[in-house]
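Entry 12.
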Amino acid sequence: MSKKKPVIVYGASGYTGRLVCEYLRELGIPFIAAGRDKQRVQEVMDKVPGIETADYEVVEVEHDVKALTKLFKGASVVCNMVGPFIKYGPETVEACLDAGVHYLDTTGEQDWMLLAQEKWGDAFAKKGLLLSPCVAQMYTTGEIAANIALETMPGLDTLDMLVLWKGFPTYASVQTIFTILKADWYYLENNQYVQWPTLTATECQVPGQHATALTLPWGGTSHPIWFKQDPRVSTVKVYGGVFAREVMDNVVAMTKMIDTDIKPLPFKEQEAALAKMAESVQGDMPPRENPRLNTSIDSVYASGPLGRAHVLIHGNCNYKQTGLMQAWAAANLLQQPPRRTGFASACQAFGHREILGALRQFGLVLKPIVTVHD
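Predicted 3D structure (tokens):
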């Protein structure tokens, strides 16, 4: 029997899972493309550019701890694409822990992150394993910008963060967004979590443009949780969204509807109503990203009593950024232990400059623009 391939992409049939596999191929990493429907996964793999040069296999697996543990044993890293993660993540994390493999995912769900940190963080650390949610453009690229801002000078303790991108969420992202909309969202203020007021929406100035963009707290994002572990930082607020105003107007309207019509319902009825709304928004896989059209902006203002810095990262193809970061992180884990084990961000585990280097190498982001006032 051949040796188990070192990386498993669970949920490989989705939009992002396919991109992770594509970049694993480019990095020369053997992998298993896994999902609940082998035929569907194979159909997706057949469309991956250059897949004939990849060392991979397709595996069908049931979504339960026993079956997943059996699949994961003998591998080194699992890239989990199966969300919403608060709903489907626990079985995958439990299986990774039982099998002794590192765990990565792309979530933006604060409730999932807090659960993962509390329930499994110490157990992963004791085994020398990494438990790293939110390895994705909407979180990691902004975290890179924040770390660059913080290293410009001592005494910066407040982060005001903005992430914007052009495009439309994938089917899985829409499912996650609707899961986030019914959860509580938090920002960090003086090292304490503070809940965002219901129905918060903010007009943000787009760096380099005269126009503003309508933004939301976007579930609070991962940054307040990651930077609560950073002694340099006391306050973090994040604003996010897509450039298309009509999309953001619809999200705001749906948020209001969820708050008034769906949150009062029993849990099972909430789930059914949200799933129906999500299906009405995005039922098909969007087209492959075009770097001329699908651009991204990550902007961070870092401030302190006697200093200020601004870091701006222009990029393209946010889902490709996510696919590369997942594949690169997996490849990194195959070569050396992470800088931090247990519950940790990609920047904490691998280094923000190193991840930036990978994004630059593949032409997905420009050199950061750094402005300092002291």
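Annotation: The CA atoms of residues 214 and 343 lie 32 Å apart. The chain has two domains: 7-135+320-361, 137-317+364-373.
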